[in-house]
């Protein structure tokens, strides 16, 4: 492998990891250009969207394309790529080590365990319910709704890998639980319990990134992200609407 | 009352941070950015500033403080502003819109939807101004 091939491979891999795990485009653009400059290419041509990266080196005829099919959210990987890029800039690691680190971190970055995430989801539900002015009687119902909803979302996303269906089913379950708890006199307000329970499912990463991408001039990616956020929000809304229509 | 709000917003921000898997050493500072955003929102709302202004200024505060934290900890900025933004999401209005649509009360639902869109716009505006301010500041202070 020549040096230029190695540079292109490393840059495409770094870009792929960052975009797959929820970085915003301005950050990806900045990092990739910086890696290229530090590797000795003065004027790299890189074009990236949420669904793929294109890169060429000006003096060479060849260009490389890297399609991006899956999109998950793991901000630790984004941060690790960034750290490695900084280390490369400071000359602490060579390009080869950089590439090996990328391969390693893509497979073996630790994620918080499912139970910790479940607890986090319950905490998000309960605290936001209180912050929005819910009553303390609804805590148990909200915790239960948030926990069950997030487990459903997590299982469908990880086992079956179907997007939007997971949000729909999870919010449907949350609505059913809220209605049941209120009917059984264990909760007071259906609205507050539902809002709290749905909060862990909110597409926070696509929303924030859509805004940042559009303002940074990456209109294609911004619109794609906004669409993603809108579809997630609609799926959540449909689940809740289902409950109201038929229960 | 304010203390409960502060504790809750800290925990909520950290909770969402765990869900999107931000690095461990960013969790604490991320929680404080969230508290700052929510307290700004509450204070402006209590001073009768209106929901839009409250959301915009809270987003501005979150944007500026996450830029600061990102520089200080040398980590990407989105680690801090994504979880901190979550309390500002117009969940209540969106919920009302969905409920009114489901019940068949379309006019009320549309007015709720407009509110959702305006709050989202206000938050985007706040982020935009924070980014603008930061870029201008760094361009003035750091001469390339």
UniProtKB/TrEMBL annotation, chain B:
Q: Which GO terms describe its cellular component?
A: plasma membrane
Q: Where in the cell is it found?
A: Cell membrane
Q: What region holds the Threonine/Serine exporter ThrE domain?
A: 5-132
Membrane topology term: Multi-pass membrane protein
Q: Where are the transmembrane segments?
A: 50-70, 77-95, 107-129
Q: Is the keyword Transferase assigned to this protein?
A: no
Q: One short Pfam family name for this protein?
A: ThrE_2
InterPro entries tied to this protein: ThrE_2 (IPR024528), ThrE_Dicarb/AminoAcid_Exp (IPR050539)
Say which domain of life the source belongs to.
Bacteria
UniProt record, GO biological process: succinate transport
Family per UniProt?
A: Belongs to the ThrE exporter (TC 2.A.79) family.
- Quote the protein name from its UniProt record: Threonine/Serine exporter ThrE domain-containing protein
Starting at the broadest rank, the lineage of the source organism is: Bacteria, Bacillati, Bacillota, Bacilli, Lactobacillales
């Amino acid at each position: 492998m020549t040096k230029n091939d190695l540079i292109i491979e490393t840059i495409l891999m770094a870009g792929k990891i960052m975009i797959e795990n929820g970085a915003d485009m301005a950050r990806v653009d900045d990092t990739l250009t910086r890696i290229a400059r530090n590797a000795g290419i003065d004027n790299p041509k890189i074009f990236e969207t949420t669904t793929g990266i294109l890169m060429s080196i000006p003096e060479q005829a060849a260009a490389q394309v890297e399609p991006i099919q899956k999109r998950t959210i793991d901000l630790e990987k984004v941060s690790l790529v960034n750290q490695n890029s900084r280390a490369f800039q400071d000359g602490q690691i060579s390009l080869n080590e950089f590439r090996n680190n990328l391969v390693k971190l893509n497979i073996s970055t630790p994620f918080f365990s499912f139970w910790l995430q479940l607890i986090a989801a319950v905490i998000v539900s309960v605290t936001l319910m209180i912050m929005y002015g819910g009553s303390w009687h609804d805590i148990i119902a909200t915790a239960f709704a948030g926990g069950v909803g997030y487990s459903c979302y997590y299982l469908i996303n990880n086992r079956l890998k179907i997007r939007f269906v997971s949000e729909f089913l999870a919010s449907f379950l949350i609505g059913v639980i809220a209605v049941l708890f209120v009917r059984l006199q264990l909760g007071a307000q259906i609205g507050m319990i539902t809002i709290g329970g749905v909060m862990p499912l909110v597409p926070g990463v696509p929303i924030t990134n859509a805004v940042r991408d559009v303002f940074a001039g990456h209109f294609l990616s911004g619109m794609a992200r906004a669409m993603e956020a809108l579809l997630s929000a609609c799926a959540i809304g449909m689940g809740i609407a289902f409950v109201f229509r038929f229960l | 009352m304010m203390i409960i709000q502060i504790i809750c917003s800290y925990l909520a921000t950290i909770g969402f941070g765990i869900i999107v898997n931000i690095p461990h050493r960013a969790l604490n500072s991320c929680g404080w950015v969230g508290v700052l955003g929510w307290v700004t929102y509450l204070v402006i709302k209590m001073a009768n500033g209106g929901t839009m202004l409250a959301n915009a200024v809270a987003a501005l505060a979150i944007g500026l403080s996450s830029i600061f934290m990102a520089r200080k900890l040398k980590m990407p900025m989105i680690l801090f502003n994504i979880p901190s933004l979550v309390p500002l999401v117009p969940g209540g209005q969106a919920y009302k819109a969905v409920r009114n649509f489901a019940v068949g009360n379309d006019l009320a639902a549309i007015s709720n939807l407009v509110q959702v869109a305006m709050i989202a716009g206000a938050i985007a505006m706040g982020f935009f101004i924070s980014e603008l301010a930061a870029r201008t500041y760094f361009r003035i202070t750091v001469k390339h």
